[in-house]
């Protein structure tokens, strides 16, 4: 990927351009020290000069769009004032004495309710959109060169001298401050999607920070001062400006491209809302336009590359096919995976199969797509106007999930995930909640996943079986958790995780943590037997290959593709045998699965087979696999289960083994095995539940009372439960001969109606 630069042969501005900003309709406004304002189209051509100013502008900020209001422009001026004007230049509001000295920077909040300004005298002020001063947030005594809002608009970041400060708008909260550069900090930007901060300063460096002030990346010094920085809207890229230089970087810090326009110092940078174009304010009066080209994507044997803004080059290396896809409009976004390529332009969406590049499905869209998320059968398009839309690969819209507080402009690829029947979306207004929706109807699922920490990445597995649908989340502490998509049952898998990814074709999960590649060959084991979780996990030291802060790009078959922090692609391989084990177990070919494990002679593979067999209730295979990994106690349990005469009894015992008490009880009650259900609760010391079952079914009330009395005598305690006190006072007699007779009769009836376990 690189930036393709375009400049005007003849400059429109006669003096330094100080600020540029894109509107929601992809028009660019530029302001200069010559007091002129120009409007530019996306081709880099000046359309008009709608108005002129009476004083030079230092900074501009467009009010966030798509909220049912007309966009207005906030302009900070050198005479200490700031203005709010509409597109035609009509002044909606003007504050003449906002600061002593120049107002250096100005910024609308993300919710459009507040404006922040920073002044030459060192004050940071918060204003209502009506122009009323709400508060003076800080008084530094040194000039404030840049401000930026937090994603939730509750905190403000400002740069003064060598320090960066993050302060809550409401009083009473502790501020965060750190020394960011050796010289003055001249530019900052805080991305609402990834919650990361970039800064540039007089020490000629640019740096990346998290919201707690921890340095994630520090560039080596450039030869000139860094004068501007800007995140792309989706948070995947950022740009850095200096004298005759614009650098395009990936979010981890490494450089995609480096261009040298004839512009002087780049005083300001601004991305278009669709993230495909960049504009820079040149110190010599020029306006620099940058277009993203040579963007690449690959999947299995197919590689695509965006050659020009409307042409995609396709190469199939196995079938030796080369295609050139040309579009009428500029390509806004594309995504390749699961055997399909989805391309969006400003007005249409094209859906290609990798088997047929000649006849794509196409559909009209009303808004540029900011995000495309693929799955095996469906894909999602996210845009500001329509939110999250789900389609199949024939182009038919399936649903449009919505919820109160949804801010689609803050969504990134890691915050949205889809499977065959579910859609998961991280609630950006409350990052601890992952909202789940039915894919076909778009209706909310029966529950949401609620975590204790903020979720920064989420992914649904792609298995065909809806009952095995799992949700994997990465929280703000970089801890990786797994939970069922149907209930909150979080299990911690790993800490210090850089990145994770589900396999595209089976249920394997890969993660990189502290320089090690972890692969959970059968993550469903956490709902079968947690003791087998570690045994069924593979670990490989890859610190020399991937380094730190790497990202897993794809996990297909037995290959894990990782992008290093410096941008290099590394391919890691894992054992191919777990994928074969999935194929044999899915087909119920347990004998072949055993032969495979005996051939490979790997304890990890045996542990996977044991868990798969237990989940499928294939006890003979489970017994063989557990014997291979020396799990003697579990073998004894398997033999005990096999002796249970009824299938319902065996299934209930296996459900209880997997800690699914309610399921086990339901199985027994539906099969009218009342004594087993009562005895199970008694063994778990759930005395009141055992009594409730006895009363509800009018069976074994005296049995429960007898076991309760025996238990109290053993521990030498008096009865304390009200239900049992009333029962004892009611005069129910405990006759152990009668009790044992009833138990014997029920067991005999179970043996007659059931059949012993046999190999499947």
In short:
Among the domains are: 2-293, 7 Propeller (Methylamine Dehydrogenase, Chain H); 294-369, Lipocalin, CATH 2.40.128.630; 656-760, no CATH class. It is built from 13 helices and 55 strands. InterPro entries: Beta-prop_IFT80_2nd, Quino_amine_DH_bsu, TPR_IFT80_172_dom, WD40/YVTN_repeat-like_dom_sf, WD40_repeat_CS, WD40_repeat_dom_sf, WD40_rpt.
Could you characterize the architecture of this molecule?
It is found in: Cell projection, Cilium. Keywords: Cell projection, Cilium, Repeat, WD repeat. InterPro entries: Beta-prop_IFT80_2nd, Quino_amine_DH_bsu, TPR_IFT80_172_dom, WD40/YVTN_repeat-like_dom_sf, WD40_repeat_CS, WD40_repeat_dom_sf, WD40_rpt. This protein is of the alpha+beta class and 760 residues long. Among the domains are: 292 residues, YVTN repeat-like/Quinoprotein amine dehydrogenase (Methylamine Dehydrogenase, Chain H); 76 residues, Beta Barrel (Lipocalin); 105 residues, no CATH class. Helix content is 19%, strand content 39%. It is built from 13 helices and 55 strands. The strands form 14 sheets. The chain has a four-stranded antiparallel sheet, with no helix packed on it. Strands 2-3-4-5 form a four-stranded antiparallel sheet, with no helix packed on it. Strands 6-7-8-9 form a four-stranded antiparallel sheet, with no helix packed on it. The radius of gyration is 32 Å and the shape is elongated.
């Amino acid at each position: 990927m690189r930036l393709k630069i375009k400049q005007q042969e003849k400059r429109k501005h006669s003096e330094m351009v100080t600020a540029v900003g894109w509107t929601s309709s992809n028009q660019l406004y530029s302001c200069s020290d010559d007091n002129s304002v120009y409007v530019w189209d996306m081709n880099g051509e000046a359309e008009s000069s709608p108005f002129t100013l009476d004083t030079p502008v230092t900074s501009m900020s467009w009010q966030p769009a798509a909220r049912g209001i007309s966009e207005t422009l906030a302009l900070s001026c050198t005479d200490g004032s700031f203005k709010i004007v509409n597109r035609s230049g009509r002044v909606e509001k003007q504050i003449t004495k906002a600061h002593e000295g120049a107002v250096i920077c100005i910024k609308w909040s993300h919710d459009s309710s507040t404006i922040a300004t920073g002044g030459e005298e060192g004050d940071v002020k918060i204003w209502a959109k009506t122009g009323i001063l709400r508060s003076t947030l800080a008084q530094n005594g040194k000039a404030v060169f840049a401000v930026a809002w937090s994603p939730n608009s509750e905190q403000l970041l400002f740069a003064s001298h060598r320090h960066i400060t993050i302060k809550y708008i409401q009083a009473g909260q502790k501020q965060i401050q750190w020394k960011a550069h050796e010289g003055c900090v001249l530019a900052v930007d805080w991305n609402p999607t990834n919650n990361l901060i970039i800064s540039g300063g007089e020490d000629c460096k640019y740096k990346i920070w998290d919201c707690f002030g921890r340095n994630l990346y520090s560039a080596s010094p450039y030869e000139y001062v860094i004068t501007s920085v800007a995140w792309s809207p989706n948070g995947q890229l950022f740009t850095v400006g200096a004298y005759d230089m614009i650098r395009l970087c990936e979010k981890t810090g490494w450089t995609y491209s480096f261009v040298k326009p004839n512009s002087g110092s780049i005083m300001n940078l601004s991305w278009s809302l669709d993230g495909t174009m960049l504009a820079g304010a040149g110190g010599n009066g020029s306006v620099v336009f940058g277009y993203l080209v040579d963007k690449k994507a690959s999947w299995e044997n197919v590689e695509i590359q965006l050659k020009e803004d409307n042409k995609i080059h396709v190469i199939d290396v196995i079938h030796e096919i080369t295609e050139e896809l040309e579009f009428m409009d500029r390509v806004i976004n594309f995504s390749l995976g699961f055997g399909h390529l989805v391309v969006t332009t400003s007005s249409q969406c094209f859906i290609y199969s990798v088997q047929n590049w000649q006849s794509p499905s196409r559909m009209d869209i009303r808004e540029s797509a900011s995000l495309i998320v693929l799955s095996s059968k469906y894909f999602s398009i996210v845009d500001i106007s329509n939110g999250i839309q789900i389609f199949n690969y024939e182009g038919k819209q399936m649903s449009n999930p919505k919820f109160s507080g949804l801010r689609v402009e803050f969504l990134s690829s890691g915050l949205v995930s889809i499977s065959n029947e579910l859609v998961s979306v991280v609630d950006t207004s409350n990052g601890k909640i992952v909202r789940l929706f039915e894919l076909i109807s778009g209706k909310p699922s029966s529950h949401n996943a609620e975590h204790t920490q903020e979720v920064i990445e989420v992914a649904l597995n792609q298995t065909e079986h809806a009952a095995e649908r799992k949700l994997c989340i990465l929280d703000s502490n970089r801890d990786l958790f797994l939970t069922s998509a149907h209930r909150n049952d979080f299990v911690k898998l790993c800490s210090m995780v850089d990145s994770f990814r589900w396999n595209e074709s089976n249920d394997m999960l890969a993660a990189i943590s502290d320089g090690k590649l972890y692969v959970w060959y059968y993550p469903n084991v956490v709902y079968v037997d947690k003791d087998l979780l570690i045994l069924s996990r593979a670990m490989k030291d890859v610190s020399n290959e991937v380094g730190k802060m790497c990202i897993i790009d794809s996990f297909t078959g037995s290959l894990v593709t990782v992008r290093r922090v410096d941008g290099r692609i590394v391919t890691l391989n894992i054992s191919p045998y777990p994928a074969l084990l999935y194929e044999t177990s899915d087909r119920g070919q347990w004998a072949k699965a055993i032969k495979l494990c005996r051939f490979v002679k790997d304890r990890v593979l045996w542990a996977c087979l044991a868990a798969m067999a237990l989940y499928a209730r294939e006890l003979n295979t489970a017994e063989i696999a557990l014997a291979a990994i020396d799990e003697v106690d579990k073998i004894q349990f398997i033999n005990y289960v096999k002796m249970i005469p009824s299938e319902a009894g065996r299934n209930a015992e296996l459900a209880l083994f997997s800690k699914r008490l309610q399921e086990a009880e339901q199985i027994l009650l539906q099969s009218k095995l009342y004594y087993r259900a009562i005895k199970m609760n008694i063994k778990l010391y759930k005395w009141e539940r055992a009594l409730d079952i006895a009363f509800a079914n009018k069976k074994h009330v005296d049995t429960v009372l007898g076991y309760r009395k025996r238990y109290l005598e053993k521990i030498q305690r008096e009865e304390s439960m009200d239900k049992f006190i009333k029962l004892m006072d009611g005069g129910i007699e405990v006759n152990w001969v009668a009790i044992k007779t009833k138990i014997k009769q029920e067991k005999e009836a179970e043996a007659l109606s059931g059949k012993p376990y046999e190999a499947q």
